[in-house]
Amino acid sequence: MANPNQEIKYTKIFINNQFVDAVSGKTFPTVNPSTGKKLADIAEGDKADVELAVKAAKTAFVRTSTWRQMDASARGALLWKLSTLMERDANVLASLESLDNGKPFPNAMYDVQGSIKTFRYYAGLADKVGGDTIPSDGPHFTYTRKEPVGVVGQIIPWNYPLAMLAWKWGPALAAGCTIVMKPAEQTPLTALYMAALSKEAGFPDGVINVVPGYGPTAGGAISSHPEIRKVAFTGSVEVGKIIMAAAATSNLKKVSLELGGKSPLVICEDANVDQAAMIAYMAVFENQGQCCIAATRTFVHESIYDQFVQKATELAKARKVGNPFTEGTVHGPQIDDTQYKKILGYIEVGQKEGAKLVTGGKTVGNEGYFIEPTIFANVTDDMTIAKEEIFGPVQSIIKYRTLDEAIERANNTSFGLAAGIVTNDINKALTFSHAVEAGSVWVNTYLAVVNQAPFGGYKQSGIGRELGKDSLEGYLETKSVSIRLPAKI
Q1: Where is the active site (predicted)?
Q2: Which residue among 319, 362, 367, 428 sits deepest, i.e. has the most Cβ atoms within 10 Å of its Cβ?
Q3: What gap in Å lies between CA 430 and CA 270, rounded to an integer?
Q4: Distance of alpha carbon 15 from its chain centroid, rounded?
Q5: What is the dihedral sign for C-alpha 237, 243, 246, 250?
Q6: What angle do CA 95, 159, 471 make, to 5 degrees?
Q7: At what angle do helices 90-101 and 189-201 cross, to 10 degrees?
Q8: Contact 95, 323 (CB under 8 A)
Q9: What is the distance between the alpha carbons of residues 66 and 60, in angstroms, rounded to a whole number?
């Protein structure tokens, strides 16, 4: 049951299975984006706190530690126990997520349930990480071992706080690593609650550490720390480049980056317009448009363009914007004042550059950071709103003539996170799926992210993969062992 007055129990840094104040004693506010008012003061971690967290994580990773000596199946059991505690406290987690992030409560609950499934997926994988035996030359027995990289740093965004935590904790813990995580400063509440649940589940001291704080300080300390072996980040391209540079100049730590997108969705002339418009609607307005895979470039065939724009407009106008705890709300506020103003700025630029504002474009209410679902028609590829990631509820509908043209234009971007096509022609579907430069491609659907399949981007949309078995590789080292035998067997 949704609780807009949910108690906030955890506001301190979590190190070595204890909640502690920041070394500096500083705090920062976390704000309810529905009202713009402070929810709580959170301990502000920085370099000194990261040092303590890394020390705890290193101690938990020593060869003789409880964690390192634990059977892989037992690590899986702990992950499963954590998921059962999340199930017990699902209403609390979803209420905290709605308060801190602003997403409607049913969406927050969907994220909680999805995160439970993520942990259970990796609980099942924990004891299935193995190497190979190699038919090497000569009288040698050669095999490989998969070993955890060690202490890992993880920096997660504010748009899906709980889901991103699960995407990163799951494979890291299944692999046997220890963690220092920095949640986004806008949304620390569910990460801190999960820290408490991890202790209750029985994870040993130091295995999981959560240091809330700001990017340049706490995040910078993680990405440049010489004793962190891998850093995983989800966020903007700009920050991803900073993190990669810090990783290179510190200790060449492993890096995985899930970054921005400007994803294309191509609507073919044979598509059912009503169905296509609904797919596109969900693809761009989900999570208030604050989604890295949002299909903000909607390419529509010229023969059905006007009909599609009309249907898309009807859907956007009917979308209920409001308080995330109000029944029927499907569209909450933007995350904060900075993002709110940025999106409004893009809407203004779109109009100035000649795009047709079909619907939306205005603010909603007198408090919080609400923006109407917005649609632009007559958008051309050279317009700012067609090139830059807006990260808000703005759909740009673009006209095209041929599939080859649509593919070329879809690929004409520095991003490559996701793409989609709506068509009843299998040849078009396969041609597009194979030709488009994107890490995830969806046919006659969108946002079909599943735990079992790898997720990540081409080009400046990232390095490495989240989810699936592929995500484990980023948390593992491969060791080759050769043993000389008396004779070739």
Answers
A1: 258
A2: 428
A3: 15
A4: 24
A5: negative
A6: 110
A7: 160
A8: no
A9: 7
Per domain, the residue ranges of the chain are 13-259+462-479, 264-443
Architecture of domain 264-443: 3-Layer(aba) Sandwich (3.40)
pLDDT tens for each residue of 81-136: 999 999 999 999 999 999 999 999 999 999 999 999 999 999 999 999 999 999 99
Is 372 tagged catalytic?
no
Contact 13, 211 (CB under 8 A): yes
For position 489, what pLDDT does the model report? 77
- As assigned by CATH, the class of the 13-259+462-479 domain is alpha beta
- Per-residue pLDDT band for 1 (boundaries 50, 70, 90) equals confident
Q: Extract the runs of DSSP E, i.e. beta strands, from 259-368.
A: 264-267, 297-301, 356-359, 363-364
Q: Identify the active-site residue in 258, 286, 466, 473.
A: 258
Q: Count the Cβ atoms, other than its own, within 10 Å of residue 348.
A: 12
From CA 122, how far away is CA 467, in angstroms rounded?
Answer: 9
- How far apart are the C-alpha atoms of 167 and 117, rounded to whole Å? 10
Distance between CA atoms of 46 and 23, rounded to whole angstroms? 8
At 447-461, the pLDDT tens digits run 999 999 999 999 999
Q: Which amino acid type is present at position 195?
A: A
Rounded CA gap, 257 and 263, in Å?
17
Backbone φ, ψ for residue 412 (5° rounding): -85, 65
- Calpha distance 124→126 (Å, rounded): 6
Distance CA 209, CA 69 (A): 20
Distance CA 267, CA 270 (A): 8
